Amino acid sequence: MSDDFGGYDMTKWKSLNDIENMFVQFIGVKLPKEYSEGEKEEFVNALLREDIFTSTYSTFGIRKEFEILIFQMHRDLESLVKRTKKLLYATALGKKCEPVLILTGIIRKSRYGSAVQLEDYAIIGGSKRGKYLIVYPFTKTSDWYLLGFTDRAEMMREHIKVGRKYDQVKQLLAYSFGIDDQEFIVAYETDDIVVFQDLVMELRETQARRYTLKDTPIVTAIYSPPTELFKIG
Questions:
Q1: What pLDDT digit, counting tens, does each position of 196-212 carry?
Q2: Pick the CATH number of 118-219 from 3.30.70.1030, 1.20.1530.20, 3.60.140.10, 3.40.50.150
Q3: How far apart (Å, rounded) are the C-alpha atoms in residues 97 and 200?
Q4: Which pLDDT band, with edges at 50, 70 and 90, does 51 fall under?
Q5: Beta-carbon neighbour count of residue 185 at 10 Å?
Q6: How far is CA 113 from CA 116, 118, 200, 225, in A?
Q7: What is the rounded CA–CA span in Å between residue 77 and residue 135?
Q8: d(CA 53, CA 72)
Q9: Cβ–Cβ < 8 Å for 190, 132
Q10: Burial level of 83, CB count in 10 A (0-12/13-18/19+)?
């Protein structure tokens, strides 16, 4: 069992076709102030389910709303829902927790020809986890979709060109149209927060930025495998 990936065997994924239309969720969990060692162990064991890809992060000291961010991915949305219910309603610690944030989306190939290889995806790319994860819901304006596809594609090429300058930063994009409040979930993985901020500042100057309706809350988290989530120091 690989603790780095929640026990999940990722070797079954060979290309983007293998993850097309899979469901992803980010779940922000508010912990109680008191819990026992036994409750922590039971909770961690529930996170290490081998049939659902899982990656966990700490937001302690960064977000006041919640301390743990859980990423999970599966072909079947109902399987993710059942897993979350078991985690939060069938474990002693989970019953004391509160799910504060849930973002749900679907992995789809880009319409704008971005040739990102599977190994270059954030979180699910198969390489060692980046130290930091930044994730946020994203929605474009109605005017964006009323533009012709050629105009949108040209602006997205500029956007993609900027992104490729920062190869230290990996991205994961999920589509949420019709299944959640936002249109996309955007996640970035990096070992260098300053470089990531440089990327964001440059992207603010691209033409596509004027069509952004909402891209908050921005959640910054630190990678922490399940067995280390509750360690202090």
A1: 999 999 999 999 999 99
A2: 3.30.70.1030
A3: 33
A4: confident
A5: 22
A6: 9, 14, 21, 33
A7: 20
A8: 6
A9: yes
A10: buried
Contact yes or no for 224/56 (Cβ under 8 A): yes
Same fold? 3-107+221-228, 118-219: yes
CB 224 within 8 A of CB 41: no
Which helix (H) or strand (E) segment holds residue 139: the answer is strand 132-140
Per-residue pLDDT, 1: 34
What residue ranges do the domains of the chain occupy?
3-107+221-228, 118-219
Position 108 confidence tier, pLDDT thresholds 50, 70, 90: very high
3.30.70.1030, 3.30.420.240, 3.40.50.261, 3.40.920.10: CATH of 3-107+221-228: 3.30.70.1030
Beta strands in 12-124 (DSSP E): 23-30, 53-58, 68-74, 98-106
Q: Which amino acid is at 173?
A: L
Q: Tokens at residue 173, please?
A: 């994009």
Q: Which residue has the tokens 């290490």?
A: 48
Summarised one tens digit per residue, pLDDT across range 136-183 is: 999 999 999 999 999 999 999 999 999 999 999 999 999 999 999 999
Mean pLDDT of the chain: 92
Q: State both tokens at 25.
A: 């969720």
pLDDT for 217 = 97
